[in-house]
Amino acid sequence: MNDITLTLSERQSTGKKARLLRQEGVVPSVVYGADMEAVSTQSGLVETTKVARAAGKHTPVHLNVGGKKTLAIIKNIDVHPLKQHIRHVAFHAVNRNEVITTQVPIQLVGVGESEAEKAGLIVLQAIEQIDIRAKPGDLPESLDLSVEKLATAEDKLTLADITLPKGVEFADVEQDLELVVANVYEPSALQAANEAAGGDAEADSEVGADNGGDTPQATQAEESRPGGKGQEEPKQSNVDANK
Q1: Closest CA to 102 of 71, 59, 163
Q2: Of 24, 117, 151, 185, whose CB neighbour count within 10 A is largest?
Q3: pLDDT exceeds cutoff 60 at 230
Q4: What is the pTM of this model?
């Protein structure tokens, strides 16, 4: 795993004043952890965007905060719903020797090479990410799952088909390993299912309109709250103040 680094400077502007930083191409952020007070920080938009794309919410980031080095996981990324630029980042400081819980993507490998796809069938992924536990240095960038053995519409892939790297385990000790990650479909059956689902959605929309229901509104992408299982979170008042 390549080291991802980001230099942060301490920030004095908080609350509404942080908006002025964004106008200058600076991203406000906060670094917090179980053994430290939350620190208001900032960094350039270009550098922060590169790090966020490379690390996501599962790869450790080596932070340099005023000359002090800290290992952290990105726990929250606030993105502008229209312009799609980063408005705020929350970094959770971690100990490299302690096991942490985080979410990693599940990557299907060999797409297009399975006997099922060569026969005209369609492979669809049902689960795209899963919570795991590991030390920061053992966290994988993704959990890979090959589709090459899929051959018929009856075939499927489950969590049991994933080989976890050494030192990595599912966060849920009672995780259902038979949970389906990918299914194989006949094109005609998939089209019929989509048409049926579309019809149901249209009917629901008409009922909502008849009863004065609200129309759907665009919302900001769902984001994880700072912290995680077994990890101390900053007080909400402190997080709000550091934005």
Answers
A1: 59
A2: 117
A3: no
A4: 0.69
